[in-house]
Amino acid sequence: MSDSKTNADEAVDALQELVVRRYGERLTPEQLAGVRKGIETVVEMSRALRALTLTNSDEPMQPFVPFRAEP
Amino acid sequence: MTESLVFLPIRRLAELVRTRALSPVALAELFLDRLETLGPRFNAVVTVTRERALHEARRAEREIAAGRYRGPLHGIPYGAKDLLATAGGIPTTWGAAPLKHQRFDHDATVIRKLADAGSVLCAKLAMVELAGGMGYRQPNASFTGPGINPWSANAWSGGSSSGSGSAVAAGLVPFAIGSETWGSILSPAGFCGIAGLRPSYGRVSRHGAMALCWTLDKLGPLCLTADDCGLVLEAIAGPDPADPTATTRPFAYEAAEAEPAPARRFTLGVIRGVTTGCEPAVVASFERALEVLRALGTIEEVELPELPYEAITRTILQAEAASAFEDWVESGRIAELTAPEDRYTPYAREAILAKDYLKALRLRGVMAREIDRVGARVDALVGPGRPTVAPPLGQEFRSALGGSVADLMGAIGNGAGLPAVAVPNGFGDRGLPTSLQFMGRVYEENAVLAAARAYQRLTSWHEQHPPAGDA
Q1: A32 contacts on B by Cβ (under 8 Å)
Q2: N or C: chain B end with fewer CB closer than 10 Å?
Q3: Residue A38 is part of which domain span?
Q4: Is the overall model pTM greater than 0.90, yes or no?
Protein backbone atom coordinates (compact mmCIF):
# COMPACT_ATOMS: atom_id res chain seq x y z
CA MET A 1 0.00 0.00 0.00
CA SER A 2 1.43 3.39 -0.98
CA ASP A 3 1.92 6.22 1.49
CA SER A 4 -0.64 8.37 -0.30
CA LYS A 5 -3.22 5.60 -0.03
CA THR A 6 -2.46 5.25 3.66
CA ASN A 7 -2.75 8.99 4.18
CA ALA A 8 -6.08 9.07 2.37
CA ASP A 9 -7.42 6.22 4.46
CA GLU A 10 -6.26 7.94 7.63
CA ALA A 11 -7.98 11.14 6.56
CA VAL A 12 -11.19 9.25 5.82
CA ASP A 13 -10.98 7.47 9.18
CA ALA A 14 -10.46 10.74 11.04
CA LEU A 15 -13.27 12.57 9.28
CA GLN A 16 -15.61 9.64 9.69
CA GLU A 17 -14.85 9.66 13.39
CA LEU A 18 -15.87 13.32 13.49
CA VAL A 19 -19.24 12.48 11.94
CA VAL A 20 -19.72 9.49 14.25
CA ARG A 21 -19.00 11.62 17.32
CA ARG A 22 -21.35 14.36 16.22
CA TYR A 23 -24.18 12.41 14.66
CA GLY A 24 -23.50 8.70 15.18
CA GLU A 25 -26.46 8.16 17.46
CA ARG A 26 -28.94 9.08 14.76
CA LEU A 27 -27.39 7.03 11.92
CA THR A 28 -27.71 3.30 11.23
CA PRO A 29 -24.65 1.20 10.33
CA GLU A 30 -25.85 1.17 6.70
CA GLN A 31 -26.19 4.94 6.68
CA LEU A 32 -22.75 5.33 8.24
CA ALA A 33 -21.35 3.16 5.48
CA GLY A 34 -22.97 5.53 2.98
CA VAL A 35 -21.51 8.52 4.78
CA ARG A 36 -18.06 6.93 4.61
CA LYS A 37 -18.39 6.62 0.82
CA GLY A 38 -19.26 10.30 0.71
CA ILE A 39 -16.24 11.18 2.83
CA GLU A 40 -14.03 9.13 0.52
CA THR A 41 -15.28 11.30 -2.36
CA VAL A 42 -14.61 14.47 -0.36
CA VAL A 43 -11.05 13.35 0.40
CA GLU A 44 -10.54 12.46 -3.26
CA MET A 45 -11.74 15.92 -4.32
CA SER A 46 -9.52 17.52 -1.73
CA ARG A 47 -6.48 15.68 -3.08
CA ALA A 48 -7.30 16.81 -6.63
CA LEU A 49 -7.57 20.42 -5.49
CA ARG A 50 -4.42 20.30 -3.40
CA ALA A 51 -2.41 18.84 -6.28
CA LEU A 52 -2.60 22.21 -8.03
CA THR A 53 -0.11 24.89 -7.09
CA LEU A 54 -1.36 28.46 -7.06
CA THR A 55 0.50 31.70 -6.62
CA ASN A 56 -0.04 33.96 -3.65
CA SER A 57 -1.94 36.40 -5.84
CA ASP A 58 -4.54 33.85 -6.97
CA GLU A 59 -7.46 35.11 -4.90
CA PRO A 60 -10.73 33.29 -4.31
CA MET A 61 -13.46 34.39 -6.69
CA GLN A 62 -15.47 35.71 -3.79
CA PRO A 63 -17.80 37.48 -4.01
CA PHE A 64 -18.21 35.69 -7.27
CA VAL A 65 -18.56 37.72 -10.44
CA PRO A 66 -18.48 35.91 -13.78
CA PHE A 67 -15.18 36.74 -15.48
CA ARG A 68 -14.93 38.36 -18.86
CA ALA A 69 -11.77 39.88 -20.30
CA GLU A 70 -12.63 43.08 -22.11
CA PRO A 71 -10.76 43.80 -25.36
CA MET B 1 -57.90 22.75 -32.22
CA THR B 2 -56.50 21.64 -28.88
CA GLU B 3 -53.60 19.63 -30.32
CA SER B 4 -52.69 22.41 -32.69
CA LEU B 5 -52.48 24.88 -29.81
CA VAL B 6 -50.70 23.03 -27.04
CA PHE B 7 -47.50 22.53 -28.96
CA LEU B 8 -47.36 25.93 -30.59
CA PRO B 9 -44.25 27.95 -29.73
CA ILE B 10 -44.79 31.10 -27.70
CA ARG B 11 -44.11 33.34 -30.69
CA ARG B 12 -47.02 31.85 -32.61
CA LEU B 13 -49.36 31.72 -29.63
CA ALA B 14 -48.51 35.37 -28.96
CA GLU B 15 -49.51 36.40 -32.45
CA LEU B 16 -52.90 34.72 -32.00
CA VAL B 17 -53.36 36.45 -28.65
CA ARG B 18 -52.20 39.84 -29.90
CA THR B 19 -54.59 39.77 -32.85
CA ARG B 20 -57.38 38.57 -30.54
CA ALA B 21 -57.82 35.39 -32.55
CA LEU B 22 -57.23 33.58 -29.26
CA SER B 23 -58.60 34.52 -25.86
CA PRO B 24 -56.11 34.46 -22.95
CA VAL B 25 -58.89 33.12 -20.76
CA ALA B 26 -59.63 30.26 -23.15
CA LEU B 27 -55.91 29.57 -23.43
CA ALA B 28 -55.50 29.49 -19.66
CA GLU B 29 -58.48 27.17 -19.29
CA LEU B 30 -57.05 24.83 -21.91
CA PHE B 31 -53.74 24.49 -20.07
CA LEU B 32 -55.34 24.42 -16.60
CA ASP B 33 -57.47 21.48 -17.72
CA ARG B 34 -54.42 19.68 -19.07
CA LEU B 35 -52.46 20.34 -15.88
CA GLU B 36 -55.30 18.89 -13.83
CA THR B 37 -55.98 15.86 -16.01
CA LEU B 38 -52.51 14.98 -17.34
CA GLY B 39 -50.25 16.49 -14.67
CA PRO B 40 -50.67 13.54 -12.25
CA ARG B 41 -49.64 11.11 -14.99
CA PHE B 42 -46.16 12.65 -14.92
CA ASN B 43 -45.98 13.66 -11.25
CA ALA B 44 -45.39 17.06 -12.78
CA VAL B 45 -47.56 19.36 -10.69
CA VAL B 46 -47.61 20.38 -7.05
CA THR B 47 -50.34 23.03 -7.20
CA VAL B 48 -52.61 24.13 -10.04
CA THR B 49 -53.08 27.86 -9.47
CA ARG B 50 -56.45 28.08 -11.20
CA GLU B 51 -57.80 31.08 -9.31
CA ARG B 52 -54.71 33.21 -9.84
CA ALA B 53 -54.42 32.07 -13.46
CA LEU B 54 -57.96 33.04 -14.38
CA HIS B 55 -57.55 36.38 -12.63
CA GLU B 56 -54.37 37.11 -14.61
CA ALA B 57 -55.89 35.82 -17.85
CA ARG B 58 -58.99 38.00 -17.52
CA ARG B 59 -56.80 41.02 -16.85
CA ALA B 60 -54.72 40.21 -19.95
CA GLU B 61 -57.86 39.88 -22.01
CA ARG B 62 -59.17 43.23 -20.85
CA GLU B 63 -55.85 44.98 -21.48
CA ILE B 64 -55.40 43.55 -24.97
CA ALA B 65 -58.97 44.42 -25.88
CA ALA B 66 -58.23 47.96 -24.72
CA GLY B 67 -55.14 48.13 -26.94
CA ARG B 68 -52.61 47.83 -24.11
CA TYR B 69 -50.56 44.88 -25.43
CA ARG B 70 -47.50 44.30 -23.26
CA GLY B 71 -45.50 41.99 -25.52
CA PRO B 72 -45.06 38.36 -26.55
CA LEU B 73 -45.71 36.86 -23.11
CA HIS B 74 -48.95 38.76 -22.58
CA GLY B 75 -51.70 36.24 -21.91
CA ILE B 76 -49.33 33.26 -22.20
CA PRO B 77 -49.67 30.56 -19.50
CA TYR B 78 -46.65 29.15 -17.69
CA GLY B 79 -45.58 27.03 -14.74
CA ALA B 80 -42.95 27.75 -12.10
CA LYS B 81 -40.66 25.34 -10.30
CA ASP B 82 -41.92 25.03 -6.76
CA LEU B 83 -38.90 26.70 -5.22
CA LEU B 84 -40.10 30.13 -6.35
CA ALA B 85 -42.04 32.03 -3.71
CA THR B 86 -45.62 32.91 -4.56
CA ALA B 87 -47.96 35.07 -2.52
CA GLY B 88 -51.69 34.61 -2.10
CA GLY B 89 -51.63 31.43 -0.04
CA ILE B 90 -50.15 29.27 -2.79
CA PRO B 91 -47.79 26.70 -1.20
CA THR B 92 -44.09 26.73 -2.08
CA THR B 93 -42.85 23.32 -1.05
CA TRP B 94 -39.27 23.07 -2.37
CA GLY B 95 -40.29 19.48 -3.23
CA ALA B 96 -39.78 18.45 0.38
CA ALA B 97 -42.38 16.60 2.46
CA PRO B 98 -41.71 18.64 5.63
CA LEU B 99 -42.49 21.83 3.67
CA LYS B 100 -45.78 20.75 2.07
CA HIS B 101 -47.56 23.63 3.71
CA GLN B 102 -44.85 26.32 3.48
CA ARG B 103 -46.21 29.67 2.31
CA PHE B 104 -44.69 33.07 1.57
CA ASP B 105 -46.22 36.51 1.61
CA HIS B 106 -44.44 37.70 -1.53
CA ASP B 107 -43.74 36.71 -5.11
CA ALA B 108 -40.20 35.88 -6.20
CA THR B 109 -38.79 38.56 -8.47
CA VAL B 110 -38.99 36.27 -11.50
CA ILE B 111 -42.71 35.65 -10.81
CA ARG B 112 -43.27 39.40 -10.46
CA LYS B 113 -41.43 40.12 -13.71
CA LEU B 114 -43.52 37.56 -15.56
CA ALA B 115 -46.67 39.11 -14.13
CA ASP B 116 -45.42 42.48 -15.37
CA ALA B 117 -45.01 40.92 -18.82
CA GLY B 118 -48.63 39.75 -18.65
CA SER B 119 -47.93 36.02 -18.29
CA VAL B 120 -50.41 33.77 -16.57
CA LEU B 121 -49.17 31.56 -13.73
CA CYS B 122 -51.04 28.26 -14.05
CA ALA B 123 -49.06 25.91 -11.82
CA LYS B 124 -46.30 25.35 -9.33
CA LEU B 125 -44.34 22.47 -10.80
CA ALA B 126 -42.78 19.47 -9.12
CA MET B 127 -39.10 19.28 -8.35
CA VAL B 128 -36.54 17.09 -6.65
CA GLU B 129 -36.57 17.82 -2.91
CA LEU B 130 -34.36 20.78 -1.98
CA ALA B 131 -33.31 20.98 -5.65
CA GLY B 132 -31.30 17.79 -5.35
CA GLY B 133 -28.78 19.38 -3.03
CA MET B 134 -28.85 16.55 -0.53
CA GLY B 135 -27.20 14.14 -2.96
CA TYR B 136 -30.07 12.03 -4.34
CA ARG B 137 -29.04 9.21 -6.65
CA GLN B 138 -32.36 7.88 -8.00
CA PRO B 139 -35.55 9.47 -9.34
CA ASN B 140 -37.84 8.93 -6.34
CA ALA B 141 -36.65 11.99 -4.44
CA SER B 142 -39.67 14.22 -4.08
CA PHE B 143 -42.83 14.02 -2.01
CA THR B 144 -44.75 14.19 -5.30
CA GLY B 145 -43.07 11.02 -6.55
CA PRO B 146 -40.48 10.54 -9.28
CA GLY B 147 -40.79 12.85 -12.27
CA ILE B 148 -42.11 10.75 -15.14
CA ASN B 149 -40.95 11.36 -18.67
CA PRO B 150 -43.69 12.04 -21.26
CA TRP B 151 -41.75 9.93 -23.76
CA SER B 152 -41.89 6.81 -21.57
CA ALA B 153 -43.80 6.03 -18.40
CA ASN B 154 -40.77 4.09 -17.14
CA ALA B 155 -38.24 6.86 -17.66
CA TRP B 156 -37.28 9.73 -15.41
CA SER B 157 -38.02 13.29 -16.49
CA GLY B 158 -34.69 14.53 -15.15
CA GLY B 159 -34.05 16.86 -12.30
CA SER B 160 -34.12 18.81 -10.32
CA SER B 161 -36.58 20.87 -12.44
CA SER B 162 -38.53 17.66 -13.11
CA GLY B 163 -42.02 19.07 -13.53
CA SER B 164 -40.76 22.02 -15.55
CA GLY B 165 -39.33 19.58 -18.10
CA SER B 166 -42.21 17.13 -18.30
CA ALA B 167 -44.94 19.80 -18.25
CA VAL B 168 -43.51 21.62 -21.26
CA ALA B 169 -42.79 18.38 -23.14
CA ALA B 170 -46.33 17.07 -22.55
CA GLY B 171 -47.98 20.33 -23.57
CA LEU B 172 -49.25 21.17 -20.09
CA VAL B 173 -47.78 24.68 -20.26
CA PRO B 174 -46.13 26.60 -23.12
CA PHE B 175 -43.13 27.38 -20.93
CA ALA B 176 -41.81 26.90 -17.44
CA ILE B 177 -39.23 28.38 -15.12
CA GLY B 178 -36.59 26.10 -13.64
CA SER B 179 -33.40 26.52 -11.71
CA GLU B 180 -29.92 25.16 -12.22
CA THR B 181 -27.07 24.79 -9.78
CA TRP B 182 -25.45 22.02 -11.78
CA GLY B 183 -27.59 20.39 -14.48
CA SER B 184 -31.07 21.08 -13.18
CA ILE B 185 -32.30 22.88 -16.31
CA LEU B 186 -30.24 21.11 -18.98
CA SER B 187 -31.02 17.65 -17.59
CA PRO B 188 -34.85 17.79 -17.72
CA ALA B 189 -34.73 19.71 -21.00
CA GLY B 190 -32.46 17.08 -22.54
CA PHE B 191 -34.30 14.06 -21.13
CA CYS B 192 -37.72 15.42 -22.15
CA GLY B 193 -36.71 16.59 -25.65
CA ILE B 194 -37.31 20.32 -25.21
CA ALA B 195 -35.21 23.49 -25.05
CA GLY B 196 -33.73 24.70 -21.77
CA LEU B 197 -31.69 27.83 -21.19
CA ARG B 198 -29.29 28.20 -18.30
CA PRO B 199 -28.54 31.93 -18.21
CA SER B 200 -25.28 33.48 -17.05
CA TYR B 201 -24.88 33.62 -13.30
CA GLY B 202 -26.49 36.87 -12.18
CA ARG B 203 -28.54 37.40 -15.34
CA VAL B 204 -31.80 36.61 -13.53
CA SER B 205 -32.56 37.68 -9.97
CA ARG B 206 -32.80 34.81 -7.52
CA HIS B 207 -34.75 36.80 -4.95
CA GLY B 208 -37.54 34.62 -3.62
CA ALA B 209 -35.96 31.40 -4.86
CA MET B 210 -34.76 28.68 -2.51
CA ALA B 211 -31.00 29.00 -2.09
CA LEU B 212 -28.97 25.86 -2.61
CA CYS B 213 -25.58 27.40 -3.49
CA TRP B 214 -25.29 31.16 -3.48
CA THR B 215 -22.55 31.32 -6.08
CA LEU B 216 -23.96 28.66 -8.43
CA ASP B 217 -27.76 29.03 -8.47
CA LYS B 218 -29.39 30.33 -11.68
CA LEU B 219 -33.00 30.62 -12.85
CA GLY B 220 -33.99 30.07 -16.46
CA PRO B 221 -36.70 28.97 -18.89
CA LEU B 222 -37.66 25.60 -20.33
CA CYS B 223 -39.61 25.94 -23.59
CA LEU B 224 -40.42 24.18 -26.84
CA THR B 225 -37.77 26.10 -28.82
CA ALA B 226 -34.59 28.10 -28.32
CA ASP B 227 -36.40 31.14 -29.70
CA ASP B 228 -38.99 30.86 -26.95
CA CYS B 229 -36.20 30.70 -24.37
CA GLY B 230 -34.97 34.07 -25.64
CA LEU B 231 -38.42 35.61 -25.37
CA VAL B 232 -38.78 34.45 -21.77
CA LEU B 233 -35.26 35.44 -20.77
CA GLU B 234 -35.85 39.00 -21.95
CA ALA B 235 -38.82 39.22 -19.58
CA ILE B 236 -37.06 37.84 -16.51
CA ALA B 237 -33.53 39.23 -16.88
CA GLY B 238 -32.31 42.38 -15.21
CA PRO B 239 -31.00 43.98 -12.06
CA ASP B 240 -32.82 43.67 -8.77
CA PRO B 241 -32.03 45.57 -5.57
CA ALA B 242 -33.19 42.50 -3.66
CA ASP B 243 -30.45 40.35 -5.23
CA PRO B 244 -27.02 42.02 -5.26
CA THR B 245 -25.67 39.33 -7.58
CA ALA B 246 -28.14 40.29 -10.34
CA THR B 247 -26.12 42.06 -13.01
CA THR B 248 -26.83 45.54 -14.28
CA ARG B 249 -25.65 44.53 -17.75
CA PRO B 250 -28.70 44.93 -19.96
CA PHE B 251 -30.14 42.02 -21.90
CA ALA B 252 -32.21 42.57 -25.02
CA TYR B 253 -33.12 39.47 -26.94
CA GLU B 254 -31.95 39.64 -30.53
CA ALA B 255 -35.07 38.03 -31.83
CA ALA B 256 -35.31 35.47 -34.55
CA GLU B 257 -38.12 37.15 -36.43
CA ALA B 258 -35.81 39.60 -38.18
CA GLU B 259 -33.35 36.92 -39.21
CA PRO B 260 -33.13 35.87 -42.82
CA ALA B 261 -32.07 32.25 -43.16
CA PRO B 262 -29.22 31.52 -43.17
CA ALA B 263 -28.56 34.61 -41.12
CA ARG B 264 -24.93 34.27 -40.19
CA ARG B 265 -21.92 32.00 -40.06
CA PHE B 266 -20.87 30.56 -36.74
CA THR B 267 -17.55 29.56 -35.32
CA LEU B 268 -18.16 26.63 -33.02
CA GLY B 269 -15.80 24.78 -30.73
CA VAL B 270 -15.79 21.21 -29.47
CA ILE B 271 -13.80 20.52 -26.32
CA ARG B 272 -11.46 17.59 -26.86
CA GLY B 273 -12.84 14.52 -25.12
CA VAL B 274 -16.28 16.02 -24.51
CA THR B 275 -18.04 12.78 -25.45
CA THR B 276 -15.96 10.63 -23.12
CA GLY B 277 -18.30 8.47 -21.07
CA CYS B 278 -21.36 9.22 -23.20
CA GLU B 279 -23.68 6.46 -24.37
CA PRO B 280 -23.01 5.38 -27.98
CA ALA B 281 -26.41 6.66 -29.14
CA VAL B 282 -25.68 10.04 -27.55
CA VAL B 283 -22.36 10.17 -29.39
CA ALA B 284 -24.10 9.21 -32.64
CA SER B 285 -26.69 11.99 -32.23
CA PHE B 286 -23.92 14.47 -31.46
CA GLU B 287 -21.92 13.48 -34.53
CA ARG B 288 -25.01 13.84 -36.72
CA ALA B 289 -25.60 17.27 -35.18
CA LEU B 290 -22.04 18.30 -36.02
CA GLU B 291 -22.73 17.41 -39.65
CA VAL B 292 -25.72 19.77 -39.59
CA LEU B 293 -23.72 22.48 -37.85
CA ARG B 294 -21.00 22.32 -40.50
CA ALA B 295 -23.54 23.84 -42.87
CA LEU B 296 -23.74 26.83 -40.54
CA GLY B 297 -20.06 27.60 -40.13
CA THR B 298 -16.79 26.17 -38.95
CA ILE B 299 -16.15 23.74 -36.14
CA GLU B 300 -12.81 23.52 -34.42
CA GLU B 301 -11.54 21.27 -31.68
CA VAL B 302 -10.39 23.16 -28.63
CA GLU B 303 -8.23 21.98 -25.80
CA LEU B 304 -8.41 23.01 -22.19
CA PRO B 305 -5.60 22.84 -19.67
CA GLU B 306 -5.61 20.00 -17.17
CA LEU B 307 -7.57 21.21 -14.18
CA PRO B 308 -9.79 19.33 -11.72
CA TYR B 309 -12.89 21.05 -13.16
CA GLU B 310 -15.43 18.74 -11.58
CA ALA B 311 -13.74 18.73 -8.17
CA ILE B 312 -13.73 22.55 -8.23
CA THR B 313 -17.44 22.95 -8.90
CA ARG B 314 -18.48 19.97 -6.80
CA THR B 315 -16.54 21.21 -3.77
CA ILE B 316 -18.13 24.65 -4.03
CA LEU B 317 -21.58 23.13 -4.43
CA GLN B 318 -21.30 20.70 -1.55
CA ALA B 319 -19.73 23.20 0.83
CA GLU B 320 -22.32 25.91 0.14
CA ALA B 321 -25.19 23.41 0.28
CA ALA B 322 -23.89 22.16 3.64
CA SER B 323 -24.08 25.70 4.95
CA ALA B 324 -27.40 26.56 3.28
CA PHE B 325 -29.04 23.52 4.88
CA GLU B 326 -27.03 23.39 8.08
CA ASP B 327 -30.19 23.65 10.15
CA TRP B 328 -31.71 20.64 8.38
CA VAL B 329 -28.65 18.52 9.16
CA GLU B 330 -28.11 19.74 12.72
CA SER B 331 -31.75 19.24 13.65
CA GLY B 332 -31.93 15.85 11.97
CA ARG B 333 -34.83 17.09 9.85
CA ILE B 334 -33.30 15.52 6.75
CA ALA B 335 -34.61 12.19 8.12
CA GLU B 336 -38.05 13.35 6.92
CA LEU B 337 -36.97 13.58 3.26
CA THR B 338 -38.23 11.13 0.63
CA ALA B 339 -35.02 9.72 -0.86
CA PRO B 340 -33.30 7.37 1.61
CA GLU B 341 -29.86 8.65 0.55
CA ASP B 342 -30.91 12.26 1.21
CA ARG B 343 -31.31 11.32 4.88
CA TYR B 344 -27.58 10.64 5.44
CA THR B 345 -25.47 11.84 2.48
CA PRO B 346 -25.23 15.44 3.75
CA TYR B 347 -23.36 14.30 6.87
CA ALA B 348 -20.34 13.52 4.72
CA ARG B 349 -20.04 17.22 3.92
CA GLU B 350 -18.85 17.79 7.48
CA ALA B 351 -15.58 16.56 6.01
CA ILE B 352 -15.10 19.50 3.62
CA LEU B 353 -12.51 21.78 5.12
CA ALA B 354 -12.64 25.56 4.73
CA LYS B 355 -9.16 25.46 3.23
CA ASP B 356 -10.37 23.19 0.45
CA TYR B 357 -13.45 25.31 -0.23
CA LEU B 358 -11.21 28.35 -0.58
CA LYS B 359 -8.82 26.43 -2.82
CA ALA B 360 -11.79 25.59 -5.02
CA LEU B 361 -12.77 29.28 -5.13
CA ARG B 362 -9.21 30.22 -6.09
CA LEU B 363 -9.12 27.56 -8.80
CA ARG B 364 -12.50 28.78 -9.99
CA GLY B 365 -10.76 32.01 -11.01
CA VAL B 366 -8.20 30.06 -13.01
CA MET B 367 -10.98 28.04 -14.63
CA ALA B 368 -13.02 31.14 -15.48
CA ARG B 369 -10.07 32.83 -17.17
CA GLU B 370 -9.12 29.71 -19.13
CA ILE B 371 -12.64 29.10 -20.44
CA ASP B 372 -13.07 32.77 -21.27
CA ARG B 373 -9.85 32.63 -23.30
CA VAL B 374 -11.27 29.72 -25.29
CA GLY B 375 -14.76 31.18 -25.45
CA ALA B 376 -13.52 34.45 -26.91
CA ARG B 377 -12.45 32.57 -30.07
CA VAL B 378 -15.82 30.98 -30.81
CA ASP B 379 -19.50 31.83 -30.86
CA ALA B 380 -20.28 28.77 -28.79
CA LEU B 381 -18.87 25.51 -27.53
CA VAL B 382 -21.01 22.53 -28.45
CA GLY B 383 -21.37 19.16 -26.81
CA PRO B 384 -23.94 16.56 -25.81
CA GLY B 385 -26.53 18.04 -23.49
CA ARG B 386 -26.48 14.90 -21.32
CA PRO B 387 -24.16 11.87 -21.45
CA THR B 388 -27.12 9.46 -21.38
CA VAL B 389 -30.79 9.37 -22.23
CA ALA B 390 -33.25 9.47 -19.35
CA PRO B 391 -32.59 6.63 -16.91
CA PRO B 392 -35.34 4.18 -15.94
CA LEU B 393 -37.42 4.84 -12.87
CA GLY B 394 -36.41 2.86 -9.82
CA GLN B 395 -32.80 2.65 -10.85
CA GLU B 396 -29.79 4.46 -9.46
CA PHE B 397 -28.40 6.83 -12.07
CA ARG B 398 -24.94 8.11 -12.81
CA SER B 399 -24.55 11.62 -11.48
CA ALA B 400 -21.95 14.30 -12.10
CA LEU B 401 -22.75 15.78 -8.72
CA GLY B 402 -22.12 12.46 -7.07
CA GLY B 403 -18.99 11.91 -9.11
CA SER B 404 -20.12 8.78 -10.96
CA VAL B 405 -20.16 10.29 -14.45
CA ALA B 406 -18.16 13.00 -16.20
CA ASP B 407 -19.83 16.29 -17.07
CA LEU B 408 -17.01 18.56 -18.16
CA MET B 409 -19.18 21.24 -19.76
CA GLY B 410 -21.54 21.21 -16.79
CA ALA B 411 -18.70 21.59 -14.32
CA ILE B 412 -17.09 24.43 -16.25
CA GLY B 413 -20.30 26.13 -17.32
CA ASN B 414 -21.82 26.19 -13.87
CA GLY B 415 -18.56 26.82 -12.05
CA ALA B 416 -17.74 29.78 -14.28
CA GLY B 417 -21.33 31.03 -14.52
CA LEU B 418 -21.68 30.62 -18.30
CA PRO B 419 -24.90 30.48 -20.33
CA ALA B 420 -25.91 27.32 -22.16
CA VAL B 421 -28.94 26.21 -24.11
CA ALA B 422 -29.90 22.58 -24.71
CA VAL B 423 -32.06 21.52 -27.64
CA PRO B 424 -33.16 18.07 -28.84
CA ASN B 425 -30.96 16.44 -31.46
CA GLY B 426 -32.34 12.92 -31.92
CA PHE B 427 -33.38 9.79 -30.11
CA GLY B 428 -31.30 7.18 -28.35
CA ASP B 429 -31.83 4.04 -26.34
CA ARG B 430 -35.45 3.11 -25.56
CA GLY B 431 -36.64 5.77 -28.01
CA LEU B 432 -35.76 8.58 -25.59
CA PRO B 433 -34.53 12.02 -26.64
CA THR B 434 -30.89 13.03 -26.83
CA SER B 435 -29.78 16.64 -26.70
CA LEU B 436 -27.21 19.11 -27.91
CA GLN B 437 -25.89 22.01 -25.86
CA PHE B 438 -24.43 25.34 -26.93
CA MET B 439 -22.37 27.07 -24.24
CA GLY B 440 -21.07 30.61 -24.57
CA ARG B 441 -19.04 33.29 -22.85
CA VAL B 442 -20.63 34.91 -19.87
CA TYR B 443 -23.46 37.30 -20.83
CA GLU B 444 -23.51 35.93 -24.41
CA GLU B 445 -26.97 34.40 -24.27
CA ASN B 446 -27.77 35.91 -27.65
CA ALA B 447 -24.86 34.06 -29.25
CA VAL B 448 -25.85 30.64 -27.93
CA LEU B 449 -29.50 31.25 -28.73
CA ALA B 450 -28.65 32.33 -32.29
CA ALA B 451 -26.63 29.15 -32.85
CA ALA B 452 -29.37 26.97 -31.34
CA ARG B 453 -32.05 28.70 -33.45
CA ALA B 454 -29.98 28.17 -36.58
CA TYR B 455 -29.66 24.47 -35.71
CA GLN B 456 -33.40 24.21 -35.11
CA ARG B 457 -34.14 25.85 -38.46
CA LEU B 458 -32.31 22.97 -40.13
CA THR B 459 -33.77 20.17 -38.03
CA SER B 460 -37.21 19.09 -36.88
CA TRP B 461 -36.48 17.27 -33.62
CA HIS B 462 -38.21 20.06 -31.68
CA GLU B 463 -41.37 19.51 -33.72
CA GLN B 464 -41.73 15.94 -32.46
CA HIS B 465 -43.81 15.53 -29.35
CA PRO B 466 -44.45 12.56 -27.09
CA PRO B 467 -47.59 10.51 -27.62
CA ALA B 468 -48.15 10.86 -23.89
CA GLY B 469 -48.93 14.50 -24.56
CA ASP B 470 -52.25 13.57 -26.12
CA ALA B 471 -55.22 14.30 -23.96
Answers
A1: 344
A2: N
A3: 3-50
A4: yes
